[in-house]
Amino acid sequence: MRLWRRSPFLLPRDRARDGPAHPDTGRLDPPRHEKHGGFRVRSCIPIVAAALLALLPALARAADEPPAAERLPSEPLVVDLAAEGRQVGKPGGEIVTLVAKPRDIRYISAYAYTRLVGYDAKLTLRPDLLARFEAQDDKVFTFTLRAGHRWSDGQPFTAEDFRYWWEDVALNKDLSPSGPPEFMLVDGQPPRFEVLDPLHVRYTWEKPNPRFLPELASPRDPFIYRPAHYLKQFHARYAPKKDLDAAVKQQKVKGWAALHNRLDGMFEQTNPDLPTLQPWRVTNTAPAARFVFVRNPYYHRVDSQGQQLPYLDRVLMDVAAGGLFAAKANAGEADLLFRGLTMEDIPILREGEQAKGYRTHLWPTARGSEIALYPNLTTADPVWRKLNRDVRFRRALSLAIDRRTLNNALLFGLGTEGNDTVVEGSPLYKPEYRTLYAGYDPDEASRLLDAVGLTQRNGAGIRLLPDGRELEIVVETDGESLLLTDGLTLIAEFWREVGVKLFVKPQDRTVLRNRAYAGLTTMAAAQGLDLAIPTAEMPPDELAPVHQDSYAWPKWGQFAETKGREGEPCDLPEAKALIDLNAQWMETGDAALQARIWGEMLQNRAENQWVIGTVSGALQPVVAKTRLLNLPDKATYSWKPTAMIGVYRMDEFFWGPDRKEAAR
Question: Where along the chain is composition biased (Basic and acidic residues) (predicted)?
Fold first, then answer.
């Protein structure tokens, strides 16, 4: 129990028990009067109470933790906040954010963004958990750990944790039936892994593996290390069989591997007992209406004054219906909120700012297109497959879209019209990637459709397919975005002008993906490029048909991912060129060559209209209490590579003084 909770004069902030706390401070204010024996009497001297209140963070930490010298690595990561344009913070307090379902608590891994190596706000790779890293020709990678670095339970973080993951998890057929993750393989071959000493490990490939470091910095951490001291008690190689059998029976799972995988929830945040290196660790499991994350006392980062990060003691994630996020933010029920908010929420968010003491920051999104159309080139319907593969058809559909009207109707005219490609902030950007075949020209669109052979129409003016069916494109979506469905309604009007009928079919995202994988979709609509602000050193595989989760060519991607066991081989020369270019990028560490490959792939994407983009540049609302400091007023928002707010270092956020404290 924390020391300050024993005080008769001070109340903890525990909303589940005491109701809402002060909307800004993150604490309940001490009462000025309390009832006693039927009379009102003054509690304690206000000045003393205020002084004690100011000391709460330090007292709380001191009560629960060993001395700082025992908690920190001998070489902690020192953050130069002044160089970042930030303030040195004040430790203590907590924040509340919202999640739509319990499983979404896993995104704290992206928010907190603690990685072996990670991007800074300028998208430069820096060591984070690692003290240093060395890369020789992108073939040999040597990692240096921080001496004295500890897991959240106080146990040492050493090379053994890397060895355990590689030898006992990734290479164990029971735990990893499909073998190591793909980014650990080059031409299907794993690296040679070496433990040099307790603080040094090395990975060596015969050929370059340029995606290794970017993958370690990705929004979803691959966690190529594990708390070996904890997980060994659930591993058949180390634990006595009788103990494992008892644990398997207690957890009601099929065997030791299922037990190990259940308890090894590094990303999912499902096991409060699992040690972590993140700034906060989860303390409870589902079912729950609130998930409580408490600070890791052994976190490796400090500010320039030697104060250990994170500044915030707790992060509280409350489960709420996604449709109520904006209303709850408007009511002041969240201290920090972004995921689940959209541009349509801005008016209601603006309404509550002054009364509830928050501000709605508007960050430009780095996404290739807010609405992207994906003709399925591997659809099972032979008529639609032939049509979708004809570049004239895809260009016609693109030219028939009035993007200016879409921009004005959906993004208040603030968006950028054009193809689904990288945004202007990327060093790889060229204007022609955005504009090629992306103007509004219905006459040219009609000419191209005629050239394809779609000259016959019915009485309503809708073109007919070669087999006599109406040219009705069923566009399937996950139905989660109002902006997407509103945009498709407008696109339906534009396409009708050139004789094309559009029917929107919303459905569950899992159902949509399974239909696409099976070749049952004709066209899907979703957001565009995730990695829309890349540098040449970031892998371009999202542009190539090598992943089944792209709605444009799921069967080709399936074939690539399964090494030919499932799906279909790519048989379109222009698309095969993307596979070859992607393979070339994967085989080189030459930055100039990587940039040239990116350019060729982006040009190919624009010319072939594999994905039909519309408008980009939506603004992402980021709601934060006005006294929550060190959050950028404006920054780029994306899943990849910024991990939403991750690269802006949530562990550096802190509560500033209220006006009365500032005046004193």
Answer: 14-32
The token pair at 134 is: 């060395």
Rounded to whole angstroms, how far apart are CA atoms 376 and 374? Answer: 6
The pLDDT of residue 8 is above 50: no
For the cut 50, the answer to whether the pLDDT of residue 299 exceeds it is yes
Q: What is the DSSP string of 124-193?
A: -EEESSSSEEEEETTTEEEEEPPTT-B-TTS-B--HHHHHIIIIIIIT-TTT-TT-S-GGG-BTTBPPEE
- CA 300 to chain CA mean position, Å: 23
154: left (phi over 0), alpha (psi -120 to 50) or beta: left
Q: Classify the phi-psi angles of 111: left when phi > 0, otherwise alpha if psi is within -120 to 50, otherwise beta.
A: alpha
Q: Which of 265, 261, 266, 230 is nearest to 248 (CA)?
A: 261
Inform me whether the pLDDT recorded for 29 exceeds 90: no
Q: Which two tokens stand for residue 286?
A: 């589902």
Instruction: Tell me the one-letter amino acid at 400.
Output: A
DSSP letter for 308, please.
B
Q: Give the span between the Cα atoms of 140 and 203, in whole angstroms.
A: 6
Q: 15: closest CA among 4, 25, 2?
A: 25
Compute CA distances 90 → 25, 305, 649, whole Å: 12, 11, 15
Q: Lowest-confidence range among 140-149, 344-353, 655-664?
A: 655-664
H-state helical runs in 306-457: 325-330, 346-351, 353-356, 382-388, 391-399, 403-411, 431-435, 442-452
Largest CA distance in the chain: 92
**Residues ≥6 apart with Cβ < 8 Å to 513:** 549
* The domain defined by 371-536+549-554+610-616 carries CATH number 3.90.1150.10: no
Whether the Cβ atoms of residue 659 and residue 389 lie closer than 8 Å to each other:
no
pTM here? 0.85
Residue 406 and residue 415: Cα distance in Å, rounded?
A: 9
Position 1 scores a pLDDT of 30
Percent of the chain with pLDDT over 90: 85
The residue-averaged pLDDT of 450-476 equals 97
Whole-number Å distance between alpha carbons of 568 and 613? 26
Question: What pLDDT score does 64 carry?
Answer: 63
Helix axes 482-496, 403-411, angle to 10 degrees: 150
One fold for 87-114+278-363+620-663 and 115-277: no
* Beta bridge partners of residue 360, listed in sequence order: 623
Residues with Cβ within 8 Å of 371's Cβ and at least 6 positions away in sequence, in order, are: 406, 410, 483, 484, 487, 488, 491, 525, 527, 528, 613, 614, 615
Give the list of residues 6+ apart from residue 468 with CB closer than 8 angstroms, or none.
none
Sequence ranges of the domains in the chain = 87-114+278-363+620-663, 115-277, 371-536+549-554+610-616
* The two structure tokens encoding residue 457: 């129409």
Assign 7 a pLDDT band (cuts: 50, 70, 90): very low
Kindly report the CATH class assigned to 115-277: alpha beta
Residue 362: how many other CB atoms lie within 10 Å = 17
Q: Which CATH number does the domain 87-114+278-363+620-663 belong to among 3.40.50.2000, 3.40.190.10, 3.30.565.10, 3.30.230.10? A: 3.40.190.10
Q: Average pLDDT for residues 332-343, to the nearest whole number?
A: 96
